[in-house]
Structures are given as structure tokens and as C-alpha cells.
Amino acid sequence: RLAREDSILHRLANGATHIPTIVRAIYISLDPRLTGAAGMSGRAHLEELVTRGVVETDGPPAIDGVFRLAA
After folding, report:
1. Cα 54 off chain centre by
2. What is the C-alpha to C-alpha distance for residues 52 and 18, in angstroms, rounded to an integer?
3. pLDDT score for 2
4. Residue partners of 46: CB distance under 8 A and separation at least 6
5. For the range 25-28, what are the long-range contacts, defined as Cβ-Cβ under 8 Å and sequence gap of 24 or more?
6. pTM of the model
7. Residue 16, Cβ neighbours under 10 Å: how many?
């Protein structure tokens, strides 16, 4: 879990702002049938990071939300 969180934070630090972009970068050889599940997992990680104040988003965390590192 912590490794996945680190990967998400790394992607955010390098300009990724949307869950689909983050999923494609983290799960390089992912079976396309699992993309939706990977997106939901990424969303769960981002929700936790928003709750902890590490990541920000406009409105509640959503699968189509825009995320960024907290200032």
C-alpha cells in the first residue's frame, strides 16, 4: 500500500492530475480489462491522501476529479 501511495505522489509531483493518467503510468502492463478496478483503487488512495491533507482536489475526490499535491 505504501509503495502504491509513493507511486501516486510521484506521478502527481511530475504533473499527472487525473486518475486515468496515473493508472496508465503506474500499471504499465495492466490487462485493459482491469483498468476500471485499478482506477477505483487509485481513487481510494487519493481519497486517503486528501483526508490526510497531502493531496488537494476541487470538491469531493471523484474518479474524474483533478488532483494535485497540497501546497
Report:
1. 12
2. 19
3. 86
4. 8, 19, 55, 57, 61, 65, 67
5. none
6. 0.90
7. 19
Q: Are 58 and 46 in contact (CB under 8 A)?
A: no
Query: Helices then strands (H, E): number in the chain?
Result: 3, 2
**How many Cβ atoms sit within 10 Å of the Cβ of residue 55?**
20
Q: What is the pLDDT of residues 34-63, one digit of tens each?
A: 999 999 999 999 999 999 999 999 989 999
The average pLDDT across 19-48 equals 94
Q: What are phi and psi of 28, to 5 degrees?
A: -60, -45
CA distances, 28 to each of 7, 37, 51, 59 (Å): 12, 14, 27, 29
CA R_g for the chain: 11
Q: Which residues pair with 67 in a beta bridge?
A: 57
